[in-house]
Sequence to fold (342 residues):
Amino acid sequence: MTKTILRALAGETLPVPPVWMMRQAGRYLPEYRATRAKAGDFLSLCYTPELAAEVTLQPIRRYGFDAAILFADILLLPQALGADLWFVTGEGPRLSTITTQAGLVALRGKDEIHETLAPVYETIRILTRELPRETTLIGFAGAPWTVATYMIAGRGTPDQAPAHALKTSDRATFVGLIDLLTEATIDYLSAQVEAGAEVIKLFDSWAGSLKGQDFDDFALAPAKRIIAELKRRHPGLPVIAFPREAGDRYVGFARATGADCVALDNSVSAEWAAEHVQKDGCVQGNLDPRLLVAGGEELVAETRRIAKAFSGGPHIFNLGHGITPDADPENVHIMLNALRGA
Ligand code: CP3
Fold:
Protein backbone atom coordinates (compact mmCIF):
# COMPACT_ATOMS: atom_id res chain seq x y z
CA MET A 1 0.00 0.00 0.00
CA THR A 2 1.28 3.40 -0.92
CA LYS A 3 2.37 5.67 1.94
CA THR A 4 -0.33 8.11 3.11
CA ILE A 5 1.77 11.24 2.53
CA LEU A 6 2.43 10.19 -1.08
CA ARG A 7 -1.28 9.49 -1.60
CA ALA A 8 -2.24 12.97 -0.35
CA LEU A 9 0.47 14.54 -2.53
CA ALA A 10 -0.94 12.65 -5.53
CA GLY A 11 -4.29 14.35 -4.89
CA GLU A 12 -6.16 11.77 -2.86
CA THR A 13 -8.63 12.88 -0.17
CA LEU A 14 -8.08 10.66 2.88
CA PRO A 15 -10.56 10.15 5.77
CA VAL A 16 -7.83 11.10 8.28
CA PRO A 17 -5.12 13.42 6.95
CA PRO A 18 -1.51 12.23 7.25
CA VAL A 19 0.48 14.33 9.72
CA TRP A 20 3.98 15.57 10.57
CA MET A 21 5.29 18.75 12.20
CA MET A 22 7.82 21.36 11.11
CA ARG A 23 10.84 21.21 13.49
CA GLN A 24 9.51 17.92 14.87
CA ALA A 25 13.10 17.00 15.78
CA GLY A 26 13.97 19.82 18.17
CA ARG A 27 14.63 21.23 21.58
CA TYR A 28 11.13 20.56 22.99
CA LEU A 29 12.14 16.85 23.10
CA PRO A 30 14.43 15.72 25.96
CA GLU A 31 15.92 12.98 23.75
CA TYR A 32 16.88 15.65 21.15
CA ARG A 33 18.60 17.75 23.82
CA ALA A 34 20.55 14.67 24.97
CA THR A 35 21.76 13.82 21.44
CA ARG A 36 22.62 17.46 20.73
CA ALA A 37 24.69 17.56 23.94
CA LYS A 38 26.50 14.43 22.75
CA ALA A 39 27.24 16.09 19.38
CA GLY A 40 28.55 19.21 21.15
CA ASP A 41 26.85 21.84 19.01
CA PHE A 42 24.12 22.20 16.40
CA LEU A 43 26.35 22.11 13.30
CA SER A 44 28.25 19.04 14.53
CA LEU A 45 24.86 17.38 14.96
CA CYS A 46 23.93 18.28 11.35
CA TYR A 47 27.25 16.92 10.00
CA THR A 48 27.39 13.65 11.99
CA PRO A 49 25.21 11.26 9.98
CA GLU A 50 24.57 8.72 12.77
CA LEU A 51 23.44 11.46 15.18
CA ALA A 52 21.46 13.43 12.58
CA ALA A 53 19.65 10.21 11.62
CA GLU A 54 19.02 9.46 15.30
CA VAL A 55 17.30 12.82 15.96
CA THR A 56 15.30 12.47 12.73
CA LEU A 57 13.97 9.14 14.04
CA GLN A 58 13.18 10.33 17.59
CA PRO A 59 9.80 12.00 16.84
CA ILE A 60 8.83 9.05 14.61
CA ARG A 61 9.39 6.62 17.50
CA ARG A 62 7.60 8.84 20.01
CA TYR A 63 4.58 9.87 17.89
CA GLY A 64 4.45 7.71 14.74
CA PHE A 65 4.28 10.67 12.34
CA ASP A 66 3.56 9.83 8.70
CA ALA A 67 6.67 11.68 7.51
CA ALA A 68 10.22 12.17 8.76
CA ILE A 69 12.08 15.31 7.70
CA LEU A 70 15.81 15.05 7.20
CA PHE A 71 17.65 16.71 10.09
CA ALA A 72 19.81 19.48 8.61
CA ASP A 73 19.47 23.24 8.11
CA ILE A 74 18.79 25.59 5.20
CA LEU A 75 22.07 27.41 6.00
CA LEU A 76 24.29 24.39 5.24
CA LEU A 77 24.11 25.30 1.53
CA PRO A 78 25.64 28.79 2.00
CA GLN A 79 28.35 27.13 4.07
CA ALA A 80 28.99 24.64 1.26
CA LEU A 81 29.28 27.61 -1.11
CA GLY A 82 32.06 29.01 1.07
CA ALA A 83 30.30 31.34 3.54
CA ASP A 84 31.39 31.12 7.18
CA LEU A 85 28.52 29.89 9.38
CA TRP A 86 28.17 29.64 13.15
CA PHE A 87 25.32 29.63 15.66
CA VAL A 88 25.23 31.90 18.71
CA THR A 89 23.42 30.16 21.57
CA GLY A 90 20.12 31.84 22.33
CA GLU A 91 20.43 34.18 19.33
CA GLY A 92 20.57 32.15 16.12
CA PRO A 93 22.71 31.92 13.00
CA ARG A 94 25.60 34.18 11.96
CA LEU A 95 27.25 34.17 8.51
CA SER A 96 29.97 36.09 6.72
CA THR A 97 28.12 38.57 4.48
CA ILE A 98 27.85 38.78 0.68
CA THR A 99 27.17 42.37 -0.39
CA THR A 100 29.48 42.95 -3.37
CA GLN A 101 30.25 41.43 -6.77
CA ALA A 102 33.72 40.52 -5.44
CA GLY A 103 32.14 38.64 -2.54
CA LEU A 104 29.80 36.81 -4.90
CA VAL A 105 32.60 35.85 -7.28
CA ALA A 106 34.71 34.54 -4.36
CA LEU A 107 32.05 31.93 -3.50
CA ARG A 108 32.51 28.36 -4.70
CA GLY A 109 30.66 27.11 -7.78
CA LYS A 110 27.63 24.86 -7.57
CA ASP A 111 29.71 21.82 -8.54
CA GLU A 112 31.87 22.23 -5.43
CA ILE A 113 29.12 21.96 -2.78
CA HIS A 114 28.96 18.19 -2.44
CA GLU A 115 32.16 17.71 -0.44
CA THR A 116 30.73 19.75 2.47
CA LEU A 117 27.24 18.28 2.07
CA ALA A 118 28.28 14.61 1.77
CA PRO A 119 27.33 13.89 5.44
CA VAL A 120 23.77 15.09 4.68
CA TYR A 121 23.47 12.55 1.86
CA GLU A 122 24.84 9.87 4.21
CA THR A 123 22.18 10.78 6.82
CA ILE A 124 19.53 10.17 4.14
CA ARG A 125 21.04 6.80 3.21
CA ILE A 126 20.93 5.70 6.88
CA LEU A 127 17.31 6.85 7.17
CA THR A 128 16.21 4.93 4.09
CA ARG A 129 17.35 1.79 5.93
CA GLU A 130 16.01 2.64 9.39
CA LEU A 131 12.65 4.34 8.89
CA PRO A 132 9.46 2.29 9.26
CA ARG A 133 8.18 1.25 5.83
CA GLU A 134 5.03 3.43 6.12
CA THR A 135 7.00 6.63 6.88
CA THR A 136 7.84 9.04 4.04
CA LEU A 137 11.27 10.72 4.05
CA ILE A 138 11.22 14.44 3.20
CA GLY A 139 14.38 16.22 2.04
CA PHE A 140 14.53 20.02 1.92
CA ALA A 141 16.35 23.23 1.15
CA GLY A 142 15.72 26.91 1.72
CA ALA A 143 14.35 28.83 -1.24
CA PRO A 144 16.87 31.21 -2.86
CA TRP A 145 15.29 34.43 -1.50
CA THR A 146 15.18 33.21 2.11
CA VAL A 147 18.74 31.86 1.99
CA ALA A 148 19.92 35.09 0.31
CA THR A 149 18.40 37.20 3.14
CA TYR A 150 20.68 35.39 5.62
CA MET A 151 23.74 35.57 3.34
CA ILE A 152 23.34 39.30 2.71
CA ALA A 153 22.58 40.33 6.32
CA GLY A 154 24.84 37.73 7.96
CA ARG A 155 22.01 36.86 10.34
CA GLY A 156 18.23 36.64 10.67
CA THR A 157 16.47 40.01 10.36
CA PRO A 158 12.86 40.89 11.24
CA ASP A 159 12.19 42.75 7.97
CA GLN A 160 14.92 41.45 5.59
CA ALA A 161 15.96 45.09 5.07
CA PRO A 162 19.60 44.41 4.01
CA ALA A 163 18.45 42.05 1.22
CA HIS A 164 15.79 44.51 0.04
CA ALA A 165 18.42 47.26 0.06
CA LEU A 166 20.91 45.25 -2.05
CA LYS A 167 18.11 44.38 -4.48
CA THR A 168 17.84 48.13 -5.19
CA SER A 169 21.44 49.35 -4.79
CA ASP A 170 23.32 46.55 -6.60
CA ARG A 171 20.83 44.62 -8.69
CA ALA A 172 23.51 42.63 -10.55
CA THR A 173 25.02 41.21 -7.35
CA PHE A 174 21.60 40.46 -5.88
CA VAL A 175 20.34 38.69 -9.02
CA GLY A 176 23.67 36.88 -9.36
CA LEU A 177 23.30 35.53 -5.84
CA ILE A 178 19.70 34.41 -6.44
CA ASP A 179 20.80 32.66 -9.66
CA LEU A 180 23.74 30.90 -7.99
CA LEU A 181 21.48 29.75 -5.13
CA THR A 182 18.83 28.55 -7.59
CA GLU A 183 21.29 26.38 -9.51
CA ALA A 184 23.08 25.11 -6.38
CA THR A 185 19.73 24.27 -4.75
CA ILE A 186 18.75 22.15 -7.76
CA ASP A 187 21.97 20.10 -7.47
CA TYR A 188 21.72 19.85 -3.67
CA LEU A 189 18.11 18.63 -3.77
CA SER A 190 18.80 16.31 -6.68
CA ALA A 191 21.59 14.67 -4.66
CA GLN A 192 19.17 14.29 -1.72
CA VAL A 193 16.72 12.47 -4.01
CA GLU A 194 19.50 10.23 -5.34
CA ALA A 195 20.38 9.34 -1.72
CA GLY A 196 16.76 8.38 -0.97
CA ALA A 197 14.59 11.44 -0.18
CA GLU A 198 11.06 10.67 -1.46
CA VAL A 199 9.56 14.18 -1.26
CA ILE A 200 11.21 17.61 -1.39
CA LYS A 201 10.12 20.69 0.55
CA LEU A 202 11.28 24.19 -0.36
CA PHE A 203 11.21 26.60 2.63
CA ASP A 204 10.68 30.24 1.64
CA SER A 205 10.26 31.53 5.19
CA TRP A 206 10.55 35.20 4.20
CA ALA A 207 8.48 35.08 0.97
CA GLY A 208 5.90 37.31 2.65
CA SER A 209 8.20 40.33 2.55
CA LEU A 210 8.35 40.22 -1.28
CA LYS A 211 5.56 42.27 -2.84
CA GLY A 212 4.18 42.59 -6.37
CA GLN A 213 6.71 42.01 -9.16
CA ASP A 214 9.40 41.12 -6.58
CA PHE A 215 7.28 38.17 -5.45
CA ASP A 216 7.01 36.98 -9.06
CA ASP A 217 10.73 37.42 -9.74
CA PHE A 218 12.30 36.18 -6.50
CA ALA A 219 9.78 33.78 -4.88
CA LEU A 220 7.75 32.35 -7.74
CA ALA A 221 10.30 32.21 -10.60
CA PRO A 222 13.11 30.47 -8.64
CA ALA A 223 10.64 27.93 -7.21
CA LYS A 224 9.32 27.25 -10.71
CA ARG A 225 12.84 26.75 -12.10
CA ILE A 226 13.90 24.47 -9.20
CA ILE A 227 10.74 22.36 -9.38
CA ALA A 228 10.82 22.02 -13.18
CA GLU A 229 14.45 20.89 -13.21
CA LEU A 230 13.98 18.48 -10.27
CA LYS A 231 10.98 16.89 -11.97
CA ARG A 232 12.90 16.65 -15.24
CA ARG A 233 15.70 14.77 -13.48
CA HIS A 234 13.35 12.75 -11.22
CA PRO A 235 10.00 12.21 -12.99
CA GLY A 236 7.10 11.97 -10.54
CA LEU A 237 9.01 13.51 -7.61
CA PRO A 238 6.48 15.29 -5.32
CA VAL A 239 7.41 18.80 -4.16
CA ILE A 240 5.93 20.87 -1.31
CA ALA A 241 6.42 24.66 -1.55
CA PHE A 242 6.21 26.89 1.54
CA PRO A 243 6.02 30.57 0.55
CA ARG A 244 5.42 31.60 4.18
CA GLU A 245 3.13 34.58 4.78
CA ALA A 246 2.40 34.88 1.06
CA GLY A 247 -1.22 35.81 1.90
CA ASP A 248 -3.18 36.35 -1.34
CA ARG A 249 -0.20 35.07 -3.30
CA TYR A 250 -0.84 31.56 -2.00
CA VAL A 251 -3.67 31.55 -4.57
CA GLY A 252 -2.39 29.93 -7.78
CA PHE A 253 1.12 29.36 -6.36
CA ALA A 254 1.00 25.59 -6.98
CA ARG A 255 -0.19 26.02 -10.55
CA ALA A 256 2.37 28.74 -11.30
CA THR A 257 5.35 26.82 -9.87
CA GLY A 258 4.40 23.20 -10.54
CA ALA A 259 4.41 22.35 -6.82
CA ASP A 260 2.26 19.37 -5.80
CA CYS A 261 1.36 20.93 -2.47
CA VAL A 262 1.43 24.36 -0.88
CA ALA A 263 2.25 24.60 2.83
CA LEU A 264 0.26 27.29 4.64
CA ASP A 265 1.28 29.39 7.63
CA ASN A 266 -1.30 30.19 10.31
CA SER A 267 -1.89 33.79 9.23
CA VAL A 268 -4.47 32.52 6.71
CA SER A 269 -7.64 30.76 7.83
CA ALA A 270 -8.13 27.12 6.89
CA GLU A 271 -11.64 27.94 5.61
CA TRP A 272 -10.28 30.62 3.24
CA ALA A 273 -7.42 28.37 2.07
CA ALA A 274 -9.77 25.42 1.48
CA GLU A 275 -11.77 27.60 -0.91
CA HIS A 276 -8.97 29.45 -2.69
CA VAL A 277 -5.82 27.28 -2.50
CA GLN A 278 -6.93 23.66 -1.99
CA LYS A 279 -9.02 23.87 -5.18
CA ASP A 280 -5.71 23.42 -7.06
CA GLY A 281 -4.57 20.37 -5.09
CA CYS A 282 -2.98 19.26 -1.85
CA VAL A 283 -2.38 21.75 0.97
CA GLN A 284 -0.36 21.34 4.15
CA GLY A 285 -0.96 23.09 7.46
CA ASN A 286 -1.77 25.10 9.44
CA LEU A 287 -2.14 24.83 13.23
CA ASP A 288 -0.72 27.74 15.23
CA PRO A 289 2.42 26.33 16.96
CA ARG A 290 1.61 28.37 20.08
CA LEU A 291 -1.27 25.97 20.77
CA LEU A 292 1.31 23.25 21.48
CA VAL A 293 2.58 25.44 24.30
CA ALA A 294 -0.86 26.35 25.65
CA GLY A 295 -2.60 22.98 25.12
CA GLY A 296 -6.10 22.49 26.53
CA GLU A 297 -9.48 22.63 24.85
CA GLU A 298 -8.40 25.22 22.28
CA LEU A 299 -5.73 22.83 20.94
CA VAL A 300 -8.33 20.09 20.48
CA ALA A 301 -10.91 22.43 18.96
CA GLU A 302 -8.45 24.08 16.54
CA THR A 303 -7.02 20.72 15.41
CA ARG A 304 -10.55 19.51 14.61
CA ARG A 305 -11.55 22.78 12.94
CA ILE A 306 -8.55 22.70 10.58
CA ALA A 307 -9.03 19.00 9.73
CA LYS A 308 -12.72 19.66 9.02
CA ALA A 309 -12.08 22.76 6.90
CA PHE A 310 -9.69 20.79 4.65
CA SER A 311 -11.65 17.50 4.71
CA GLY A 312 -13.09 18.04 1.21
CA GLY A 313 -9.73 17.65 -0.54
CA PRO A 314 -6.15 16.42 -0.24
CA HIS A 315 -4.54 17.63 3.01
CA ILE A 316 -1.43 16.97 5.08
CA PHE A 317 -1.92 18.13 8.65
CA ASN A 318 0.98 20.25 10.00
CA LEU A 319 1.73 23.43 11.91
CA GLY A 320 1.82 26.92 10.39
CA HIS A 321 5.49 27.19 11.44
CA GLY A 322 7.98 25.17 13.50
CA ILE A 323 7.17 23.80 16.96
CA THR A 324 8.92 25.92 19.59
CA PRO A 325 11.33 24.77 22.34
CA ASP A 326 8.79 25.66 25.08
CA ALA A 327 6.10 23.31 23.64
CA ASP A 328 4.93 20.46 25.91
CA PRO A 329 5.64 17.05 24.27
CA GLU A 330 2.38 15.77 25.80
CA ASN A 331 0.39 18.35 23.80
CA VAL A 332 1.56 16.68 20.58
CA HIS A 333 -0.23 13.49 21.74
CA ILE A 334 -3.34 15.56 22.44
CA MET A 335 -3.17 17.03 18.90
CA LEU A 336 -2.73 13.58 17.34
CA ASN A 337 -5.61 12.09 19.35
CA ALA A 338 -7.89 14.97 18.32
CA LEU A 339 -6.91 14.40 14.68
CA ARG A 340 -7.06 10.63 14.59
CA GLY A 341 -10.19 10.45 16.74
CA ALA A 342 -8.68 8.40 19.58
O1 CP3 B 1 12.01 20.52 10.75
C1 CP3 B 1 12.88 19.71 11.14
O2 CP3 B 1 12.76 19.03 12.18
C2 CP3 B 1 14.09 19.45 10.24
C3 CP3 B 1 15.25 20.22 10.46
C4 CP3 B 1 15.24 21.73 10.21
C5 CP3 B 1 15.95 22.63 11.02
N1 CP3 B 1 15.89 23.87 10.44
C6 CP3 B 1 16.67 22.27 12.25
C7 CP3 B 1 17.04 23.34 13.20
C8 CP3 B 1 14.69 22.47 9.16
C9 CP3 B 1 13.76 22.00 8.04
C10 CP3 B 1 15.12 23.82 9.31
C11 CP3 B 1 14.77 24.90 8.37
C12 CP3 B 1 15.23 26.27 8.66
N2 CP3 B 1 16.38 26.68 9.24
C13 CP3 B 1 14.51 27.41 8.24
C14 CP3 B 1 13.22 27.41 7.45
C15 CP3 B 1 12.03 27.12 8.28
C16 CP3 B 1 11.67 28.18 9.27
O3 CP3 B 1 11.83 27.91 10.47
O4 CP3 B 1 11.23 29.26 8.84
C17 CP3 B 1 15.24 28.54 8.66
C18 CP3 B 1 14.87 29.98 8.46
C19 CP3 B 1 16.45 28.05 9.28
C20 CP3 B 1 17.57 28.85 9.83
C21 CP3 B 1 17.75 28.63 11.27
N3 CP3 B 1 18.21 27.47 11.84
C22 CP3 B 1 17.49 29.55 12.31
C23 CP3 B 1 16.94 30.96 12.13
C24 CP3 B 1 17.81 28.91 13.51
C25 CP3 B 1 17.81 29.52 14.89
C26 CP3 B 1 16.46 29.60 15.48
C27 CP3 B 1 16.24 28.46 16.43
O5 CP3 B 1 15.15 27.87 16.41
O6 CP3 B 1 17.15 28.20 17.23
C28 CP3 B 1 18.21 27.59 13.20
C29 CP3 B 1 18.61 26.53 14.15
C30 CP3 B 1 17.91 25.22 14.07
N4 CP3 B 1 17.64 24.55 12.92
C31 CP3 B 1 17.50 24.41 15.18
C32 CP3 B 1 16.96 23.24 14.63
C33 CP3 B 1 16.42 22.05 15.38
C34 CP3 B 1 17.71 24.74 16.64
C35 CP3 B 1 19.15 24.46 16.92
C36 CP3 B 1 19.46 23.97 18.31
O7 CP3 B 1 19.36 22.76 18.57
O8 CP3 B 1 19.87 24.84 19.09
Residues 3 and 133 are 8 Å apart (CA to CA). DSSP finds 16 helices and nine strands in the chain. The longest strand covers residues 136-142.
